[in-house]
Amino acid sequence: MSMGEKRMKVTTKQQNLPEGIQLRALALHALAAVLTIGLIWPQYMAMAQTAPSGSPAKSSVLSTGGGQALLDPSDTVILLLDHQAGLFQTVKDISVAELRANVTLMAKIATLLKIPVITTASEPNGPNGPLMPEIHQFASHAVYVPRKGEVNAWDNEDFVKTVRATGRKTLIMAGVWTSVCVMFPALDAKAAGFTVYAVIDASGDPSEMASRTTLARFTQAGIIPTSANAVLSEMHRTWNRPEAAELAKLYAHAAPNYLAVMESYQKAQDVVKQEKK
Question: What is the model's pTM?
Answer without folding.
Answer: 0.76
